[in-house]
Amino acid sequence: MPGGIPEYPELSEITMGHRPTLHPLFKGARHEISEFTFANIYLFRETHNYRISMLSDGLLVITGNDNGSPFFMLPFGLPDKDTLGSLFKDHISMKAVSEGQALILKEAGYEVTGDTDNFDYLYNRDELARLSGRKFHRKKNLVNAFIGNYRYEAEPLLEEYMGDAVFINEEWRKEHGEAGDFKAAKDALLNCYELQLCGYIYYVEGSPAAFTLGEELKPDTFVVHFEKGRGAFKGLLQFVNQSFSSLLPEKYTTVNMEQDLGDEGLRQSKLSYRPSGFVKKYRASVKGE
User: Fold this and answer.
1) How far apart are CA 216 and CA 224, in angstroms?
2) How many Å apart are CA 273 and CA 207, to the nearest integer?
3) Angle (CA) 46 52 53, round 5°
4) What's phi and psi for 2, nearest 5 deg?
5) pTM for the predicted model, two decimal places
6) Would you say the C-alpha torsion 92, 95, 46, 177 has a positive or negative sign?
7) Under CATH, domain 120-258 is a member of which superfamily?
8) 36 to 45, 60, 122, 166, 207: CA distances (angstroms)
């Protein structure tokens, strides 16, 4: 099988060796869903217990398990009716269902519900960069206060700064007292070039303070996978968000800031930036199960 991908129901762990096969497929599909990049699948392979397999018609399926609940995802299309039935027999649900897939699955008789905790937040890049108008008044004040109170520098996240970015990630974990996406962020930093991720690192008063890291999702959309900062500097993350948005190439008219995962604090924070829209995702299951 290409890229060492076995035939279903045999499964393979996601490895960097799958990138030559999967990265072009994800890029070619031009997905709006933030999960559907090779980097995202690879970096969160342990979080969601991702595995990959090839179906009889050549389509690829990605399976996972969240807290004992097995699921599957079909980023490159739906298979035939019998194969789809087998997947639902082996898993509780299908996750990261696109709007187009949701319509087809509903017509086929499956139960389809909105997975609001995993909706991706979309923003107008120019609005994030300018923060103009009354709706961004508080954000603008925080950014101005940060600029007025601190000496700062911004640098492209090149190899020479990776050690400082890893330090920021470590400090973030200490401050939050939880693992969160610490491991995925560390993997992203250590494999930044292999995964073709890009971002910026920020220094405040000469000390490494924040970094942001992401990739192109579509020709006009940049997805931010990680944005981490130390809590010692008021207004830092608001400044980083505004600064990075202004540094992105103008071809990116939209910034995808991913989901809130049902965290109320994160939800309010993301809503406060006045999203221009959402990438809606759904879960599908067999009716009555």
Assistant:
1) 9
2) 27
3) 160
4) -60, 135
5) 0.96
6) negative
7) Gcn5-related N-acetyltransferase (GNAT) (3.40.630.30)
8) 12, 12, 16, 25, 34
Cα–Cα distance for residue pair 106/123, rounded to 1 Å: 29
Angle between helices 236-247 and 137-149 (to 10 degrees): 100
Q: Is the pLDDT of residue 75 over 70?
A: yes
Q: How far apart are CA 95 and CA 75, in angstroms?
A: 10
pLDDT tens column, 185-234: 999 999 999 999 999 999 999 999 999 999 999 999 999 999 999 989 99
Specify the domain boundaries for CATH 3.40.630.30 within the chain.
2-117, 120-258
Phi-psi region of 262 (alpha: psi -120 to 50; beta: other; left: phi over 0): left
- Dihedral sign, CA of 261, 187, 231, 135? negative
Query: What is the number of other CB atoms lying within 10 angstroms of the CB of residue 176?
Result: 12
Question: What does the pLDDT look like over 124-163, one tens digit per residue?
Answer: 999 999 999 999 999 999 999 999 999 999 999 999 999 9
Q: Is 260 helix (H, G, I), strand (E, B) or coil?
A: coil
Which residue has tokens 């990605």? 62
State how far the Cα of 71 lies from the Cα of 73, in Å rounded to an integer.
Answer: 7
Instruction: Kindly list the distances between the CA atom of residue 183 and the CA atoms of 14, 46, 179, 231, 253, in Å, as whole numbers in the listed order.
Output: 16, 9, 7, 19, 30
| DSSP 8-state assignment for residue 119 | P
Superfamily of structural domain 2-117: Gcn5-related N-acetyltransferase (GNAT) (3.40.630.30)
Comparing CA positions, the residue from 282, 283, 278 lying closest to residue 120 is: 278
d(CA 238, CA 78): 40
Place of tokens 């690192």: 201
DSSP character at residue 133: S
- Write the DSSP symbol of residue 6: P
